[in-house]
Design brief:
Blueprint: H1 3-7, H2 28-35, E1 39-44, E2 47-59, E3 86-91, E4 95-101, E5 110-120, H3 122-129, H4 141-147, E6 165-168, E7 177-180, E8 194-197
Antiparallel strand pairs: 1-2, 1-6, 2-5, 2-8, 3-4, 4-5, 7-8
This protein binds a DNA duplex (13 and 13 nucleotides) through strand 3, strand 4 and helix 4.
Length: about 210
DNA sequence: AGTGCGATTGACT
DNA sequence: GTCAATCGCACTA
């Protein structure tokens, strides 16, 4: 390790600590709350891209709005993996969405990652997104997937181990976490299963849902 | 085989 | 504020 690395710990790959699977709450809604303030790390050939998770949604067991509601299919099988695995799917034929599987093996449920506060690799994110504005780089589930170049190839990967995509412990105090209805769904829409960092400009959704 | 509909986004009136 | 893009899946026949 060079002197540069010692002086700038944030540039070291080893700076971030993967989340321990044992530490992940076993309940989907609890996991959605827990993930606020943790760090999503993407390893690309050009370098590390990462962001602090500021918004999530829980799709709990038996949820009529969840993709696992009608049982396992080719697309949603990753939702049934042990908690801490990636479920990536294409929404509207245009945007990839990243979920974290959330229950015991064989039970389908997950947490949708909806927004990040950009952290490392911001120039790479700007190229991936084709825009400049920092606030919009990863504000929205499809946008964050594009910023981190997340696609179906990452479906099923273990997010509790270093690799192409993984989750790391947050290193700052997490602010107040708000709760609201989930965005963009019709069934079971009234349940308060969306979690967000109150006051963060990097959170998506209507202003009325962010108070 | 055909139809309808999304856990969205970006462009446009 | 409206709306099209574009694809996988559920559902019907």
């Amino acid at each position: 390790m060079g002197r540069e690395d010692l002086l700038k710990p944030e540039r070291r790959k080893s700076f971030h600590v993967p989340l321990s699977r044992r530490a992940l709450p076993l309940d989907t809604a609890s996991l959605a709350h827990y993930l606020i303030g943790t760090i999503l790390v993407r390893e690309l050939p050009e370098g590390i891209v990462s962001g602090t998770i500021v918004e999530t949604e829980a799709y709990i067991i038996g949820d009529a709005a969840g993709h696992a509601f009608r049982g396992m299919t080719k697309r949603n099988r990753s939702l049934f993996l042990e908690r801490g695995h990636a479920y990536v799917y294409l929404a509207y034929g245009t945007s990839f969405m990243l979920n974290v599987s959330s229950e015991v093996p064989g039970v389908g449920a997950g947490v949708l990652i909806r927004a990040l506060e950009p952290r490392e690799g911001i120039p790479i994110m700007r190229i991936n997104r084709g825009i400049e504005r920092l606030r919009d780089l990863a504000r929205g589930p499809g946008r964050l997937a594009a910023a981190l170049r997340i696609d179906a190839e990452l479906d099923g990967c273990d997010l509790c181990r270093r690799g192409p995509l993984w989750l790391a412990r947050g290193d700052r105090k997490v602010g107040e976490i708000g709760q609201s209805m989930r965005i963009g769904i019709s069934r079971d829409a009234d349940r308060l299963l969306r979690f967000y960092l109150r006051g963060s400009p990097y959170v998506s959704g209507l202003r009325s849902l962010n108070q």
